[in-house]
Amino acid sequence: GWDVAVFRNGASGYDRYRLEYRSSSAHAYPSSGSANWVSSLLDAGQPAAIKTWRRVGARFAWPEARGNPASTDGVQVFLDYSVDLGATWTQLATATVSSGATRQIDLEGALPNGTRSRWLQLRVRWASVLDWAPVLSGVWADWALSAIASTRRRWDLTIRCGDRLVRRDGAVESRSGRGLAADLWAAWDSGALLGLRDIDADATDATYSARIVAIRETAARPADAGRWGETELALTLVEG
User: Fold this and answer.
1) Residue 124 in contact with residue 36, Cβ under 8 Å?
2) Phi-psi group of 227: left, alpha or beta (phi > 0 → left; psi -120 to 50 → alpha; rest → beta)
3) What is the distance between the alpha carbons of residues 155 and 217, in angstroms, rounded to a whole number?
């Protein structure tokens, strides 16, 4: 699927050989181009933990002239990030680079406060590529585990999940024990923010936003748990 381009000494033109037929009109390169590079899912070696992503960057370096060393074309490079597996992207930094001005650039920026997710993706884009382009040599990300942030409130508690439990307001819980447990596991898996009212909420009327960062499920008799939905979940929550 590659083409061969042969440049002749002392001439500005080139010969192009197509090794695979495309169409009768595709016999020249476009006058300008663009390209994207997208990372895999970055988890910092902690795939199960919610991370706070602080700062990211991309480095470009080329130890020799790339393309036309006398080019005056200003190539634009962009650095984007995504915390929802590429569903949406946010542009973080951009720069315009001219050939011959430098052979290395750093493109970086700080992420908004509270940027948390299990995975991060980075995307580098090139635009206005005419006859040369800077070479991407690497990307990086600075992060911290949200679960160990010392400046955040932390709760350790055990939740009883059973059928027809009586709530604090005296009403009977409509969800089954298995439904309650499934909702808590789903909240842990997604890293969603939950509204938490502490044991003294009647006096303080305070509601906190927190994430489940650790969860453990136990049942006294597994056979009965499968029948009646009786189980207990030990949770660790950290303020969001």
Assistant:
1) yes
2) alpha
3) 17
- Report how far residue 9's alpha carbon sits from residue 98's, in angstroms, rounded to the nearest whole number: 24
Question: Which residue did the predictor score with more confidence, 175 or 139?
Answer: 139
CB 49 within 8 A of CB 213: yes
- Residue 218 CA to residue 60 CA, distance in Å, equals 51
| Phi, psi torsion values for 170, nearest 5 degrees | 90, -10
Distances (CA, A) of 116 to 99, 113, 198, 202: 37, 9, 23, 31
Give residue 239's Cα distance to chain centre: 21
Q: What distance, in Å, lies between the first and last C-alpha atoms of the chain?
A: 49
Asked if 52 and 146 touch (Cβ cutoff 8 Å), the reply is yes
**What stretches of the chain adopt beta strand conformation (E)?**
3-7, 14-18, 33-38, 51-61, 74-82, 90-98, 104-110, 116-117, 121-129, 136-145, 154-161, 194-196, 208-218, 231-239
**107-136: pLDDT as tens digits:** 999 999 888 899 999 999 999 888 888 999
3-class SS at 65?
coil
For residue 42 the two structure tokens come to 């970055």
